[in-house]
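ZP: hey, is the 26V complex queued? I don't see it on the tracker
AM: it wasn't, my bad. submitting now with these inputs:
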Amino acid sequence: MSNEITKNSIENAVSQKLIRYFGISDFEEASKEEIYMSLILSIKDILNERRSNFNRAVKKKRAKRVYYLCMEFLIGKSLKNNICNLGIEDTVKEILTEKGIKLEDLYEFEPDAALGNGGLGRLGACYMDALSSGNYPATGFSILYEYGLFKQKIVLGEQAELPDEWMTYGGVWLTARTDRAYTVRFGGKVKEFWREDGKCDIVYEDCEEVEAVPYDYTVSGYNTECVNSIRLWKAVSKRDFNMSLVSQGQYVRALEEKGNSEIISKVLYPSDNHTEGKLLRLTQQYFLVSASLQSIIFDHLKVYGSLENFADKVAIHINDTHPALIIPEMMRVLIDNYGYTWEDAWRIVSKTVSYTNHTVMSEALECWSEDIFKIRLPRLYTIVSEINRRLCKNLWASYPGDWEKISRMSIINSGSIRMAQLCVSSSCKINGVSELHTEILKKNLFYDYYKYTPEKFINITNGIAYRRWLCFSNPRLSELLDLVIGNSYRTDASKLTEFKNYENDKSVLLKLADIKYNNKTEFSNWLKSKTGQILDPNTVFDIQVKRMHEYKRQLLNILNIISTYVDLLNTPNMDIVPQTYIFAAKAPPNYYMAKQLIKLIVAIENEINKHPIIKEQLNVVFVENYNVSVAEKLIPCCEISEQISLAGKEASGTGNMKQMINGGVTIGTLDGANVEIKNEVGEDNIYIFGHTAKEAEELWRQGYNSILYYNKCYKLKNAIDFLASGFNDVGFVKIADYLISGGNISDPYMCLADFDSYYKIHHNMLNDYRDTLKWQKKSLNNIAKAGIFSADRSISEYANKVWGLLKV
Ligand code: 26V
């Protein structure tokens, strides 16, 4: 047990840090930055001590560990989360208030650790939180992207990308472990030297060596002594300064040479709508995998001295295909470095590795050109080829003569190395992230594999770290819950169902309305102070926040907004529920249509701003630089949660769960986890519209023709015509063309096919909103039924069904 944390101990710790790191002996003289740093360093000490105690307990128990490999962790801010997890928020506030400092200001000061694109990365962070909260021994592995993804700024109505310099103040959480650096090799030549005993020595020549230096980010759990960490690798050049260049006065060139390999950990790739098989991305993936595996093996050998029990004590999780190279890399290390036979190595690897698929979008399934792969990772290429040769041999035995099936299933095909096939053929378990998504994996994407090894496929529906998303970011609502149902839901989300008993309690329903109004007011004030954008908390807040992508169909929402706008232009005193549409999203810098959509939303916002009367009825804002902390402010304000992807395309969604648990009512298609949300809350408490996944697929197969819908629905026609004619001095003819003039490839995500049912159900929804009690009852039901979407539940399923992991 670690020492008890008291007001005194925290105060002393912070004072000590101020002295040691900043030479300040008087609290009063310290700047906000210095206090911020000192507070974090003090909390880090507490967490690190707990981490070392927890690790000792894990070793003593010889407990199995899970290693969660992911190219992205969208951690966000940690100060508040850690303080709340430790249960010391009141104490810290008290200390700071005495010194005239607001803890809230320090929270604001912390930058987001935004090492992710969206759902996938945030899921990784939520799962690390749940692993710690559940007392599971776990380590996350990723890359220390110095400039994150990018910081979004709206400049002249369009997205501009700036480097996100989060490390200056966000790096305080990191602990550099220079003592645990490893070398990662790229390129060069591989030579095999066969010995007389039949073994083979592998010698590498002329390869490029990069040093991987770990920086550990501690992850606390709620109300527990368990602390885990995410190990982030930084690339450091191993090349010494070329002194001859320096002495020739070419200092800058010497720096450039050294800097080259360090590019590996500079920025994260955006999840574009197409993978280009970029060399740097492959390099990043191998860098992550090779360094992480060395670290895993080192840890294991330190405890057990041998790799014989590796598969019993280690679970390695591949989050999406991005870290799939761990499979051939582990084969390489076991065979080349530890003398294992292929068969023995394979037994270990295929028992250790499990894989989660996060998308069925074919553009997002990563493939590498054999030529690039061969040059960059020559030894791994040999191993992948051998894995593939043996796989095809087995497939041939099962399906003699069925070349078509075998070529669909093979890892290497037509000059490309397919990571999904590598993962599915080699993992002990494969899971999708919602019921529907897993069914689609089984029926479509991985159909052949499902028939081949059905026992490997399972579903684990995603979950969220609901303490962050409800308890800490919506204190008004969680206080009400504490009062009404007690606080046991804070450790057991299933207890939220008790809230349902209050669905007809008028005072509770009115309190819910009040809380929402206060959250909306707080957000409106914050936004106004930051950007000058004006919101009216008396209007209904209709929110669509997620990555910008065609399949998520922000455009469907926009078309409905434009149609309402046109109606208001024609009939200014139309009786409508005053409505505010809030968008926030980053678009991948190379994704033309996604950037156009942002431009369009901003243009509508500006257009409406020119009509103050209309703005009172219909307001649109684009909130820039969407990230975890913006989400934490925005989601508690959600009344209408837009989850309107084309059915079959959104693997799960997790924003839908976050908004639901904050009382947002979903308008959505039967896609991803929306299906399960509907099953939980019942038809009265969700607004479902549009084609089902099956219907959408069928419609597309028959030869979808968007123009038919345009001609059939006058509202839709008005909206698209208005879009084409342009407003706010900007024309969007290209978007109109994209919807209706591309022959059978126009409107690829079938916005038009779902428009009619969308606007009708949206209209009904707004009408229901007029009746506060009726609406709040729906909201209450959403909160009460959200417990199942807790990451604690997801993680316990992973622990039981995939990793064989026990709590320590
Ligand atoms: C693909 C690529 C390919 C190009 C290089 C960069 C890059 C980065 C990410 C991706 C795949 C993105 C997959 C993804 O984010 N899936 C989301 O996962 C969430 C968590 O399971 C899920 O809720 C969302 O529905 C799903 O879209």
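AM: back. The mean pLDDT is 95.
ZP: great, adding it to the tracker
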